[in-house]
Design goal:
Layout: H1 9-28, H2 33-52, H3 56-63, H4 71-78, E1 80-84, E2 97-104, E3 107-114, H5 120-125, H6 133-149, E4 153-159, H7 166-170, H8 173-185, E5 191-200, H9 201-205, E6 212-216, E7 220-222, H10 226-233, H11 240-247, H12 251-256, E8 262-264, H13 275-293, H14 298-310
Parallel strand pairs: 3-4, 4-5, 5-6, 5-7, 6-8
Antiparallel strand pairs: 1-2, 2-3
């Protein structure tokens, strides 16, 4: 069953009518194929026009969609031979950030990313994708391992932000995020980051300081959530839509401002409607970007990466 967002209600009504007609056709052997085809065409057209004119706040809702694919979905459909590696060798294993060896279209890579979970139990298990210090230190360990073995690093970013709890602060959350960002910038191997859902605050940047930064078409990327920004500026989260508009959180805004390098198309209606197709689109884009970086030396990769981020806002 598809979970519809508020602005998708007209599409939901059409698709509900289509489902009813199919049920009538199956139970009573009534020929309604022509009417079903007409409604399907109308539904596709409405869905396309709706998603072509989404506001930043609506894109934020899409990026947070409960059925949107996460790290494990992309592993299943875009990568192969995934071998997870756990633990930071200091404290424990943080399941909000996962990683390990994998193959992308035959190429060996180190894959790291946020996992939010897809139901109540798994979301609690993965802490809703909010990494703790041990998660970022695990990412550092895996990046250093990739550098040692000459493997490209691919990161899939999808977090509302690093975990803000007191235990995370006690274990050095800010220092872990800073060290992870530093490890990204110092990598002697190609690094590609993809914002696949939410890219929130330093928790995202810590895995996204890459040679090339990609964003899924309906993902968002910002220094703070729209609700958090609205609470600071207007003292109410009800202004979240205004904050999202002002912060320019969408892939289209960020590409124009050279914060990201490439927008990856999603299936019509968002990645949540076809996780397999979305994963394949992302996998192809990642492969192209890695091909483009494969000839560069370690020194060149580091220099280009530093120049890229120093140029932002210039």
């Amino acid at each position: 069953m598809i979970s519809y967002l508020d602005f998708e209600k007209p599409v939901a009504q059409l698709e509900e009518r289509i489902a009813q007609l199919r049920n009538v056709n199956a139970l009573h052997d009534v020929d309604v194929a022509q009417e079903i085809a007409r409604l399907e065409a109308k539904s596709t057209e409405l869905l396309a026009s709706t998603y072509a004119s989404l506001t930043p706040w609506q894109k934020t809702q899409v990026a947070r969609h409960p059925q949107r694919p996460h790290f494990r979905d992309y592993v299943a459909h875009a990568f192969s031979d995934f071998m997870p590696l756990g633990g930071d060798r200091l404290y424990g294993d943080d399941l909000a950030i996962m990683g390990g060896f994998a193959r992308l279209n035959g190429r060996r890579v180190m894959l790291i990313g946020h996992e939010k979970g897809n139901d109540t139990q798994s979301r609690i298990k993965h802490n809703f994708g909010m990494g703790k210090p041990e998660g970022y230190r695990k990412a550092i360990r895996l990046m250093e391992l990739a550098g040692r073995f000459g493997l490209p690093v691919v990161t899939l970013v999808d977090t509302s932000g690093a975990f803000p709890g007191i235990e995370a602060e006690e274990r050095g959350q800010a220092e872990a995020i800073a060290r992870s960002t530093e490890a990204c910038l110092a990598l002697p191997v190609p690094m590609i980051a993809a914002i696949v859902g939410e890219g929130g605050s330093g928790g995202a940047v810590a895995l996204a300081s890459a040679n090339r930064v990609l964003m899924m078409e309906h993902a968002v990327y910002s220094v703070i959530s729209p609700e958090g920004c609205a609470s600071i500026l207007w003292r109410t989260s009800e202004k979240a839509a205004d904050a999202a508009q002002a912060m320019k959180v969408t892939a289209q805004h960020l590409k124009r401002d050279n914060v990201i390098d490439r927008i990856v198309k999603e299936p019509l209606g968002g990645a949540q409607r076809d996780a397999v197709a979305a994963a394949r689109m992302l996998g192809d884009a990642l492969t192209e970007e890695l091909d483009g970086l494969s000839a560069k030396t370690g020194e060149q990769l580091i220099a280009v990466r530093e120049e890229r981020f120093l140029a932002i806002g210039g």
